[in-house]
Amino acid sequence: MMNVFNAAPDGIQTAPHDMRIVAAGYQVAVREVDLTRVRDKESLMLAFLRGLALTQTFGHNWDALFDVLTDPESRPPRFALVLCDYDHFRKRQVKLNAELEAVLLDAQREVMAAGRQLWVLAEEPESDPRRW
C-alpha cells in the first residue's frame, strides 16, 4: 500500500497502520479526534476541542472549526487530523457527517492554497470479533 504522506492530501483517506511512527518519519504532526461517543453537533465540537487541545474560547461551530484547522499560527505546516471510529460515525450521523466533511475538505483546500498540508485520515478500531 502506498504511504499516504508520499502524496498531497486528497480528501478523507485511510490512516496508515503505525500512524504516529509513519507520520514522524515524514515530519507530520498528528492529532486524533475520537468520534466514538458523538451523538450531536455539540458532542462533535467537544470531541474536536479535546482532540485538538483547544481552549474553552473555541466557538463550537463550523466556522470556528474551519478557522482552527486553517490557522497557520496554531497548526504546523504538515498536519494530519485522524478521525477515530470514523466509519461508524459516518453511518450513525449521516447529516452531521456531511456537514463535517464539507468543513474538513474546505479547510484542506484552503491550507493547500497557502502552501501547507492537512491530511484528514479515517482510522478504524482494530477488528473486534464481539461486534459481529
TrEMBL record:
Domain called Barstar (barnase inhibitor): residue spans: 29-121
Similarity comment: Belongs to the barstar family.
Full protein name: Barstar family protein
UniProt source species: Deinococcus oregonensis
